[in-house]
Amino acid sequence: MQRAISTCLMRGGSSKGVFLRASDLPPAGELRDSVILRLFGSPDPRQIDGLGGADVLTSKLAIVGPPSVAGADVDYTFGQVSFINAMIDYKGNCGNISAAVGPFTIDEGLVQLAPFNGAETWTQCVRIHNTNTGAILRATIPVGIHGARVHGATTVGGVPGTGARIDLDFSDTQGSVTGRLLPTGHLYETVEVAGEGEEPEHVQVTLLDAGQPTVFVTASSLGMPVEIRADEIAGILERSPSLMRRVERLRGACAVLMGIVESWEDAERVSPYTPFVAILSPASDSRCDITSTVVFMQSVHKAYPVTGAVATVAAALLPGTLAHSVLSKGSCTGPLRIAHPTGVMEMEGLVEEEKLVKASITRTARRLMDGNAYVPWSTWPVE
């Protein structure tokens, strides 16, 4: 015998996740995490006995429920479900999965469908309280009489085909985890990083928290060419386990400085998702303003995380940061165009007096399936 749990699988941007209603789960805590890990088939690198996709971009969780704060339509908790360890990292948010929360909320009837106003483009704004960071995201969703629309002409790098345009506003995400745009108060700094059986090295970084705490470092600081494409950075990292360990040691040292963990050795175990590491180089061609490749969950991101793009636009528009120093022509007059391993992502942004005023992006999302998922009664016994 098994317990049935109402489940929805959705793509949001270039990620895919399992969406669950909070009311269908135990309260937050050890039992809820055990149920979720069993649903995903974790820990197991293949997640063969669960719904997880055995990839960091597809082993993601969204728990959606009624709002707990004023000014929100819904609560949303993000979890990065590890397939290596029996853990779920709730320390940050995923912007791509956030793109699917609005359509899920509308289609599940968690908010009332906006009345038709006669406009050619009928949209609905859903105010999403992200419980991980406390921020309220605003998603503008195209709708029809049957709910969220999926057909449209919008493209997303790393996603085949086109879909209906979803506008996401992340302007409220400054200091998402650490409470400050610049967690250490510095535009850039030199951090001491443990060596691998060698003397410590010193690396210049910018530490910034908007959307998601992110460590910015130049490709040349890691021994790569000054000018290099994002897919080339990804390829070098994927072929070099020693370089990936070096990046993880850097991430751990910066996580300590940002107040996320107490020692760099704890970062992979305690906070594998947060912070991100963004490896920068100048624009590779006229289609982009900056080149960046992100490492998260001890893996190379195959596209670009939306919350990482929020941090990137904030860093690029803030004079004195490493991102601003490699920005094409030293300025950006329109959306920031970020070249990543599988395309180009555009993020609108505005920073004034070291404050994030605007951060918005366009995504698509689609419901892929819904129904019941099952966990053994032994995982979640009858009360």
Automatic annotation (TrEMBL):
The lineage of its organism: Eukaryota, Sar, Alveolata, Dinophyceae, Noctilucales. This is 3-methylitaconate isomerase. GO terms for molecular function: isomerase activity. Keywords: Isomerase. It comes from Noctiluca scintillans. It holds the Pfam family PrpF. Belongs to the PrpF family.
